[in-house]
């Protein structure tokens, strides 16, 4: 009888590694995932996240390579210690960090609101809900609670404030966070690429009802404002 093939365990290790990655990859999508952008601002934020991940990976890999080289190098041989420390260690790390910081400033400048005729919306936070004021179907201002209506493909500036404590406005698939501070107005620029619904939430702990302080952004085709008598979105 022939001997049964022996396994060195590498196949099991590979399968285990793949199985461990599946839950991580599943977290890259979803209604609250910043890695599944649905607008230009969110795409910039996601790009910055990936750039930081790649930069951290490059630094980690470089350090591990240096450790391996130093470990295998014969004693008494090799470059001067200052070359390794300054020329490679400090120089490479600083190059990557400066590039990441520069890219971060560039992203921040790109998502700043500009005075170019964007749709103006106000968001007022309170414990534990949101009140939005936006242009309605006839152009008149419309106030809604916990539901924001915006047209697709059109930039909109959200003037964010609060009436009691500090909150934070965040729609992960449309852009970054912006604090809602009592007595102060902060402005965030967002835009949705296509019609649909996106979940938003308060990203700053604000009390016992913080976990339920959520809202919905309804994105509609320009010129096709939803019928609120059917959707029930206007609950003034």
From TrEMBL:
<dbReference type="InterPro" id="IPR008972">
    <property type="entry name" value="Cupredoxin"/>
</dbReference>
<protein>
    <submittedName>
        <fullName>Cytochrome c oxidase subunit II</fullName>
    </submittedName>
</protein>
<feature type="domain" description="Cytochrome oxidase subunit II copper A binding">
    <location>
        <begin position="116"/>
        <end position="231"/>
    </location>
</feature>
<keyword id="KW-0479">Metal-binding</keyword>
<keyword id="KW-0812">Transmembrane</keyword>
<dbReference type="InterPro" id="IPR002429">
    <property type="entry name" value="CcO_II-like_C"/>
</dbReference>
<feature type="transmembrane region" description="Helical">
    <location>
        <begin position="12"/>
        <end position="35"/>
    </location>
</feature>
<dbReference type="InterPro" id="IPR001505">
    <property type="entry name" value="Copper_CuA"/>
</dbReference>
<keyword id="KW-0249">Electron transport</keyword>
<feature type="transmembrane region" description="Helical">
    <location>
        <begin position="47"/>
        <end position="71"/>
    </location>
</feature>
<keyword id="KW-1133">Transmembrane helix</keyword>
<keyword id="KW-0472">Membrane</keyword>
<dbReference type="GO" id="GO:0005507">
    <property type="term" value="F:copper ion binding"/>
</dbReference>
<dbReference type="InterPro" id="IPR045187">
    <property type="entry name" value="CcO_II"/>
</dbReference>
<dbReference type="GO" id="GO:0016020">
    <property type="term" value="C:membrane"/>
</dbReference>
<dbReference type="GO" id="GO:0004129">
    <property type="term" value="F:cytochrome-c oxidase activity"/>
</dbReference>
<comment type="similarity">
    <text>Belongs to the cytochrome c oxidase subunit 2 family.</text>
</comment>
<keyword id="KW-0186">Copper</keyword>
<keyword id="KW-0813">Transport</keyword>
<feature type="transmembrane region" description="Helical">
    <location>
        <begin position="83"/>
        <end position="106"/>
    </location>
</feature>
<dbReference type="Pfam" id="PF00116">
    <property type="entry name" value="COX2"/>
</dbReference>
<dbReference type="GO" id="GO:0042773">
    <property type="term" value="P:ATP synthesis coupled electron transport"/>
</dbReference>
């Amino acid at each position: 009888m022939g001997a049964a093939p022996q396994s060195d365990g590498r196949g099991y290790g590979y399968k285990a590694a793949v199985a461990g990655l599946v839950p991580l990859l599943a977290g890259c999508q979803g209604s609250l995932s910043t890695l599944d952008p649905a607008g230009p601002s969110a795409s910039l934020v996601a790009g910055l996240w990936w750039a930081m991940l790649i930069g951290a990976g490059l630094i980690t890999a470089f350090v591990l390579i240096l450790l391996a080289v130093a470990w295998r190098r014969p004693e008494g041989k090799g470059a001067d210690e200052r070359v390794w420390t300054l020329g490679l260690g400090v120089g490479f790390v600083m190059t990557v960090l400066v590039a990441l910081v520069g890219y971060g400033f560039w992203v921040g400048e790109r998502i700043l609101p500009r005075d170019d005729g964007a749709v103006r919306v106000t968001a007022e936070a309170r414990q534990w809900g949101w009140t939005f004021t936006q242009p309605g179907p006839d152009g008149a201002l419309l106030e809604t609670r916990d539901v924001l209506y915006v047209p697709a493909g059109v930039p909109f500036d959200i003037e964010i404030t609060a009436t009691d404590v500090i909150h934070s406005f965040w729609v992960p698939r449309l852009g970054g966070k912006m604090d809602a501070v009592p007595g102060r107005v902060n402005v965030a620029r967002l835009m949705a690429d296509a019609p649909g619904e996106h979940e938003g939430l308060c990203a700053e702990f604000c009390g016992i009802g913080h976990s339920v302080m959520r809202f919905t952004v309804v994105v509609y085709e320009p010129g096709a404002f939803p019928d609120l008598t059917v959707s029930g979105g206007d609950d003034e």
